[in-house]
């Protein structure tokens, strides 16, 4: 979910500090099947029939209020924003609408919430299992923000323009350009050949 919606970690996990960001809650989610909004307390099989999801961030780090982002299903069984949110919602079934997304019950009935430290551990574990460490990546440089920056980079490589990336990431300025990594080979493929091509021009100054 954080990858597709380009979320800051404080937007889906609790923070020990007092911040203006309000993490996503159950009531901030809308699951869609066609033009019908599904009940967030539906059983998992019903939630998994959704073909789109909308999130609404009541307040953010940048002060923007009620920012809404919508995604359709990716159609991928393992990497899909709709399926991800469906599982998160199902974990809160029967809990109040103000329950934070990422809340779950343990086997002994204790109510817990996913923390930023757990997200960090899982992101680094996934990076290691993908073989990134063996290919020279420093896993200590991978953090929770890698999901947000990775989402921005995925949009760029998929050919989406700056306005779309800024809109989906809810950036008010061009600071998002820090996330567009220049060391990605696919981003600069063919650039040197274009630069080396002889170009004739007329000086009118």
List the helices and strands and how they pair.
Blueprint (H helix, E strand, L loop, with lengths): L28 E5 L2 E3 L5 H4 L4 E8 L5 E8 L8 H11 L11 E3 L5 E3 L2 H14 L15 H13 L4 H8 L21 H6 L9
Antiparallel strand pairs: 1-2, 1-3, 3-4, 5-6
Give an overview of the whole structure.
With 205 residues, this protein is an alpha+beta fold. The protein has one domain: hpI Integrase, Chain A, CATH 1.10.443. It is 27% helix and 15% strand. The mean pLDDT is 86.
Distance between the termini: 53 Å
- Poorly predicted parts: none
- What is the CATH level 1 assignment? Mainly Alpha
Number of helices: 6
Largest sheet: 4 strands, antiparallel
The SSE order reads EEHEEHEEHHHH
How many β strands by DSSP?
6
Query: What percentage of amino acids are in beta strands?
Result: 5-15%
Number of domains: 1
What is the CATH topology? hpI Integrase, Chain A
- Broad structural category: alpha+beta
Helix content: 25-40%
Radius of gyration: 20 Å
Describe the global form. Answer: globular
How is the largest sheet built, in terms of strand order?
2-1-3-4
Q: Name the average pLDDT.
A: 86
């Amino acid at each position: 979910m954080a990858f597709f919606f380009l979320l800051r970690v404080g937007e889906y996990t609790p923070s020990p500090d007092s911040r203006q960001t309000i993490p996503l809650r159950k009531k901030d989610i809308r699951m869609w099947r066609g033009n019908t909004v599904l009940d967030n307390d539906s059983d998992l099989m019903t939630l998994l029939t959704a073909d789109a999801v909308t999130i609404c961030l009541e307040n953010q780090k940048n002060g923007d209020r009620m920012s809404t982002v919508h995604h359709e299903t990716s159609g991928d069984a393992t990497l899909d924003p709709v399926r991800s949110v469906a599982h998160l919602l199902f974990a809160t079934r029967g809990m109040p609408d103000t329950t934070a997304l990422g809340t779950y019950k343990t086997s002994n009935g204790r109510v817990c919430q996913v923390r930023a430290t757990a997200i960090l551990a899982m992101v680094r574990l996934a990076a290691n299992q993908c073989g990134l460490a063996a290919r020279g990546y420093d896993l200590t440089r991978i953090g929770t923000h890698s999901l947000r920056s990775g989402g921005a980079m995925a949009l760029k490589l998929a050919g989406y323009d700056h306005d779309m990336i800024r809109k989906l990431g809810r950036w008010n300025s061009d600071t998002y350009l820090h996330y567009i990594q220049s060391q990605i080979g696919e981003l600069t493929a063919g650039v040197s050949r274009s630069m080396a091509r002889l170009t004739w021009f007329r000086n009118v100054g």
